[in-house]
Amino acid sequence: MSETATATETALTGERADLLATLAKQRHFLRFTVRDLTDEQAGLRTTASELCLGGLIKHVTASERNWVGFIVDGPSAMGDFDAMTEADWARRADEFRMLPTDTLAGILDDYAEVARRTDELVAALPDLDAAHPLPKAPWFESGAHWSARRALMHIIAETAQHAGHADIIRESLDGAKSMG
Predict the structure, then answer these.
(1) Which of 55, 115, 146, 154 has the smallest set of CB atoms within 10 Å of its CB?
(2) Is residue 9 very low, low, confident or very high in pLDDT (cuts 50, 70, 90)?
(3) 160: phi > 0 → left, psi -120 to 50 → alpha, else beta; which?
(4) How far apart are CA 108 and CA 39, in angstroms?
(5) What is the C-alpha separation between 1 and 37, in angstroms, rounded?
(6) How far is CA 113 from CA 47, 87, 107, 137, in A?
């Protein structure tokens, strides 16, 4: 079993195994970007962006948690983005920051727990084609439905995209790269 494979993945075959292996690889790259960093370093902004490494992992964790909630419970698990208040948006913005009470170890532990739950869900889902309407949000097509499969592919894409962001932030911090 590779360092990124889980016991759940090794028990699966076919599409589910492929989805989880791809997600595990992207999770590994994201976690790898914070190797050997302090809490302070994980909270530094190293580019023109507001993003920091700890905040990116917090965001990916929250995103994965929300999309898994969507797979299980539908749009109610994510809320109505059109009805969000300024306080709601401020809480969401905190997903992208290392707050004074955050530690990198705590953020990584939370991410590992969310990943474990996602992997267990993927293994146990009766049907990857089961679909729910998307929550109300200005960035979603009105009336669209996503299957569990499509939500999982979105989690993979989101994780990969942010792993790339993290690599740039880390390289700007101290020259370390995930690859190359």
Answers:
(1) 154
(2) very low
(3) alpha
(4) 11
(5) 27
(6) 29, 27, 10, 27
CB 173 within 8 A of CB 43: no
**CA–CA gap between residue 84 and residue 80 (Å, rounded):** 7
Question: What pLDDT shows up at residue 180?
Answer: 66
Contact 37, 29 (CB under 8 A): no
- Judged by DSSP in three states, 145 sits in strand
Amino acid at 105: A
Q: Residues 105, 31: contact at Cβ < 8 Å?
A: no
Q: Which residue has the higher pLDDT, 9 or 91?
A: 91
**Per-residue model confidence as pLDDT tens digits over 105-158:** 999 999 999 999 999 999 999 999 999 999 988 888 989 999 999 999 999 999
Q: Return d(Cα 47, Cα 8) in angstroms, integer.
A: 37
By DSSP bridging, strand 131-133 and strand 145-147 are antiparallel
- 111: its two tokens: 């991410």
Q: How many C-beta neighbours within 10 Å does residue 111 have?
A: 20
First to last CA, the chain: 24
Say which residues have a Cβ less than 8 Å from residue 152's Cβ, sequence separation at least 6.
19, 23, 67, 71, 122, 128
Tell me if 172 sits within 8 A of 166, measured CB to CB.
no
* H or E segment and range at residue 107: helix 104-124
